[in-house]
């Protein structure tokens, strides 16, 4: 753990979507734009600089509501960003998510040729995200943002995905979501784990020192400072297949719930196994002051309580001594559900598209999102499990397994199918407000 230091973030220049956890419940929308006219694209950036919510706006006129704008590498080129500036962006971002598909495990059903159009194409230039506590305030936020792009014929909306909190306030596999949020130095926003020292601001925002003591920048400085990178993913969830797998590997409803907890690392109420190993505790699961305050190494290094291969332990090993210091690979994760809830008790797919829109926020695409995806989600070497993959989001194909440590004999669950299919994604740069104005003022 690193020492606490004092950092002053320029919150009025950072988009609120970078640092703020999403509200619960929530409604959200993602709108993709193509820039057909450079002048209109630059005008979009100028207008966006006055419409997006800054991290300094703790309370917006619509409550916990904000609008964010991000730009793809193709979008930066469409805006006419000079080549010498483009070359200072990380090479993963310049390549784009499609080119990185093999490294990310986006193969087979999840490969880019099967993605939902226009995701992953050169037509996607700008991503506008709006988030609010309910649909009424979401639509109000969109109405307020519409003048930003509404009368610019050279900017075309080409895709939209609406998301909303399910009635259960869980995601489609039945787990309470939106629990974990890291503390960032200087943000003024408390993290969800009281035992974790706040992370250096440079892990999430360009222009500040990160955990390694370095400072990530772009050229010119105004373009990069107070910006960040976002990996957007549309993930289709096979809810019926997940239910069948739990049923087929359990002797009854109670064992199903325990198995679901071992696979995730939490009971579906949100209560972590680390704090409630023997039974579910819905009150704990709903308590945001307690449900994420735990570590692993002192009490559960071997994973007898929370399996080392469980989803939440892979995604965030916390204090565990694993390959790759966990603090160097932390991200801000936000998931929002789309599609109808599969009816209770249904074990067959009804053909509906349902899943999560995920946003992974961090200043280092390579050692954050790509490392976690390739090394922690789709490999098990880091905790001594060979090529075992994450049981929830790993690129499983029916041949892998999941091991639950226990005494006297561990339990091995065979034939893990793929429960999550990638339907598309984009690497984006989320500029600071001054950078949006800089993009708007480009000439030539």
TrEMBL record:
<feature type="domain" description="DyP dimeric alpha+beta barrel">
    <location>
        <begin position="14"/>
        <end position="144"/>
    </location>
</feature>
<comment type="similarity">
    <text>Belongs to the DyP-type peroxidase family.</text>
</comment>
<keyword id="KW-0408">Iron</keyword>
<dbReference type="GO" id="GO:0004601">
    <property type="term" value="F:peroxidase activity"/>
</dbReference>
<dbReference type="InterPro" id="IPR006314">
    <property type="entry name" value="Dyp_peroxidase"/>
</dbReference>
<keyword id="KW-0479">Metal-binding</keyword>
<dbReference type="InterPro" id="IPR049509">
    <property type="entry name" value="DyP_N"/>
</dbReference>
<keyword id="KW-0575">Peroxidase</keyword>
<protein>
    <submittedName>
        <fullName>Dyp-type peroxidase</fullName>
    </submittedName>
</protein>
<dbReference type="Pfam" id="PF21105">
    <property type="entry name" value="DyP_N"/>
</dbReference>
<dbReference type="InterPro" id="IPR011008">
    <property type="entry name" value="Dimeric_a/b-barrel"/>
</dbReference>
<keyword id="KW-0560">Oxidoreductase</keyword>
